[in-house]
Design a protein that fits this description.
about 120 residues, alpha/beta, 5-stranded mixed β-sheet, two-stranded antiparallel ribbon, globular
Length: about 120
Amino acid sequence: MISGLRQTAILLVTAALLACSAPTEVRMKGGSSIALRTDKVFVGERGAVILNGKMIDAAALAPELAKLKAENGIVWYSRENMTSAEVTDAQMIVFKIVVAARVPISLFSDGTFTHCAER
C-alpha cells in the first residue's frame, strides 16, 4: 500500500508530466479535424467545484468525468492558488477524483484557463 504522502507526490508528478500536452482537436486524413470534448474543472480552496462554469458537488464530478472518458475527451484543471505549493485537503480530494477518471489532464495556473501551468 502506498502512503498518503507518496501517493500525493505521485499524483502531482503525473499531472505535471501531462500538463498542457493534450490536444483539443484531432486531425483526420484529408485535413479535416474533430474537436475533442474539453471539460474545465476549477477547485476553490475549500473544495468548491466548478465544472464548465457551473458549481457542482464533488460527488457529481466522477460520473461527469466517466462520460468525458467515454467520449475520449480531456480535462483542463485549475485550482485556487495554483501557483502555490500548498494544496488544501479539499482540493486534493477533487484532484484525486480527476486523476482516478483516467482522462488526459492539462493544468492551468488560472481560473480562466488561459495560462498553462509551467512544467
